Amino acid sequence: MNSSQYLNSEVVEAINPASFQAQQPYPWINPQFFIRPERYEELLQSMPPLEQFRSFFGKQRKHGQGSHDRFTLDYERGMELSSHWRDFVEELCGDQYRDLVCKLLDVPQVRFRFHWHFTPNGGEVSPHCDSKGKIGSQIFYLNTEDDWQWDWGGETVVLDDRGRFPAESAPAFEDFDAEYPAETRDNRSLIFGRRGNSWHGVRRINCPENYYRKVFIVVFEEYRPLRMLAKQARRLVTGKQLVTDKERLMY
Questions:
Q1: Cα–Cα distance between 171 and 41 in angstroms, integer?
Q2: What's the predicted TM-score (pTM) here?
Q3: For residue 243, which of 4, 77, 195, 230 sits 20 to 30 Å off, Cα-Cα?
Q4: DSSP sequence for 68-106
Q5: Contact (CB, 8 A) for 115 and 79
Q6: Among 94-98, 149-153, 202-206, 221-225, where is mean pLDDT lowest?
Q7: H/E segment holding residue 21
Q8: Domain ranges of the chain
Q9: Could you read off the pLDDT of 65-109 as tens digits, one per residue?
């Protein structure tokens, strides 16, 4: 095994696409040690400082859903970043990870966006389904017992509505028929695929000042080159920006 490798090949290769797709209420898995333990520790010790993040508070969401308050930082090549994180993201852009995501979500090509979220006391992710542009995500949990007490919360909760709620609605956590909180401690992550009922959220966090729920998120978007060319041609005719800010951050 390459000593510089961040992804744990044994864990990656043990994930079965058929089992993932068959999971209820939609495809999800909560693997441990997806990142090799010694490499995970390096990432924890070299995270971007809060000063690099932008505030994202009190933003009105569609469909009456509550604001997802947090500090956020988008990954962009060339940004100020530790070598550990830079190398980790480049490995995620490589063939092994890209092939895994394509197999799990049954798509021919995929592109990624990457961002960190640090959420303070009182932050919450109200139940929602991701936008149609996303086909899934992987959330890497970055807290340890040194900076987080687990009863403060922070788990992503997979929610089952048994098909009762339209995605364009704002149900509360207690409205769902079943819930499956992700394990977040000891080098865990959550991978899930978007379907029409892919409800999930994070209950209100209760932690002291200057403590944060820390996650790194990989957003999966299906890549269809011909569709993208057609979209850019329409933008050219109408005088719109050829590449949006979001598209510029896809890899």
A1: 37
A2: 0.91
A3: 195
A4: --EEEEE--TTSS--HHHHHHHHHHTSHHHHHHHHHHHT
A5: no
A6: 221-225
A7: helix 17-22
A8: 9-225
A9: 777 889 999 999 999 999 999 999 999 999 999 999 999 999 999
